[in-house]
Amino acid sequence: TEEKNIVNDFLDIELASERYKNYNNLEIIVIEEAGSAIENLLVYEYAYKDFHSFGNKSTPADKQRLGWILDTTQIKELKNKYNAKNDYQWKIADIRNFKINIMKNETFIKIINSGEYTNLPEKLILRVTKPLIIDDYNAFISFRLGVLGYNTINYYTALMKKVNGKWQMRASYWDGSVE
Questions:
Q1: DSSP string, 74-126
Q2: Do the Cβ atoms of 85 and 36 come closer than 8 Å?
Q3: Residue 102: beta bridge partners?
Q4: Structure pTM?
């Protein structure tokens, strides 16, 4: 499906980045519950509203640079269209270019809360939302990646743009900031 293509193209970009060079030998665990596609939109909306607060207007150059593909009316329409239901469970076969294992969120929380992670080898823990496809060429995806029990390495929502049949990262949104 196109959602799997988005996820795989995103992971190819993200996990090849410099920040993971010290972790590339660790086992990768994907949290089974994909979360809701609406989560992606909420982060974008927060960053969009924060940028435009206090009467700030975005120029055409800002829109291009920051990936403002939706305005407040379009955001509201999409929020009404999609619900917050968690309707997808990741499977090992969904991720093509990395060897992964799957863990239920409940198991992950139990390991953290019990302190059991201190007795386990380090692992990269990856939580990826189901992509929110805006149109044939634009989609949002959110993810959080950390080392089991220790720290979060990265967390953001990305605007993915399809170019020549491949999904590329166009812009990134954090709660209140844009890159």
A1: HHHHHHHHS------B--GGG--SS-EEEE-HHHHHHHHHHTGGGGS--EEEE
A2: yes
A3: 30
A4: 0.85
**Strand 100-103, strand 123-128: pairing:** unpaired
- CA-based torsion, 146, 149, 151, 152: positive or negative: positive
Residue 51: per-residue pLDDT = 85
From the list 39, 41, 48, 14, the residue with the least C-alpha distance to 177 is 48
CA distances in angstroms from 115 to 26, 95, 118, listed in the order given: 19, 29, 6
Cα–Cα distance, 21 to 149 (Å, whole number): 19
Task: Report residue 132 as tokens.
Answer: 């929110």
Please give the mean pLDDT across all residues of the chain: 86
Per residue in 160-170, pLDDT (tens digit) is: 999 999 999 99
